[in-house]
Design a protein that fits this description.
By secondary structure, the chain is mainly β. Strands 2, 4, 5, 6, 9, 10 and 11 form a seven-stranded mixed beta sheet that branches. Strand 7 and strand 8 form a beta hairpin.
């Protein structure tokens, strides 16, 4: 079992930045690809960004491309989401997820591929 905890959310003005962290604990001897998703009020959970276990492969939703950066520190079992140039439409609960993998260069976009999820952290962007 792997326990995933997000942190770093908060209230920020439009144009500002936040960095979310995702700490994984438990069976971290296995390899995991990581992903970030978000869910705005009244909407479905949507994909934001993903990174392979090796860290070499990343993929972003079009809505955040060029503004958000996903990264990992496998030595610390932590993933990050640097969010710049935030917009009011980025307001949502942000979830981190981990997917077991034996392939270091694979990423997943579908939330159904992820095995472990955090409880989420709120990000509110004011206009």
């Amino acid at each position: 079992q792997v326990h995933v905890v997000e942190s770093g959310g908060g209230l920020v003005q439009a144009g500002g930045s936040l960095r979310l962290s995702c700490a994984a604990s438990g069976r971290t001897s296995e390899s995991y690809a990581m992903g970030w998703f978000r869910q705005a009020p009244g909407k479905e959970r949507e994909f934001v960004a993903a990174i392979s276990w090796s860290g070499a492969i990343t993929y972003y939703a079009d809505s955040v491309k060029g503004r958000f950066t996903i990264s990992t520190d496998n030595a610390r079992n932590t993933a990050y989401l640097q969010m710049n140039s935030l917009k009011p439409e980025d307001t949502a609960v942000y979830y981190c997820a981990a997917a077991r993998t034996v392939r270091p260069e694979t990423i997943w976009i579908s939330r159904n591929e992820y095995d472990y999820w955090g409880q989420g952290t709120w990000v509110t962007v004011s206009s």
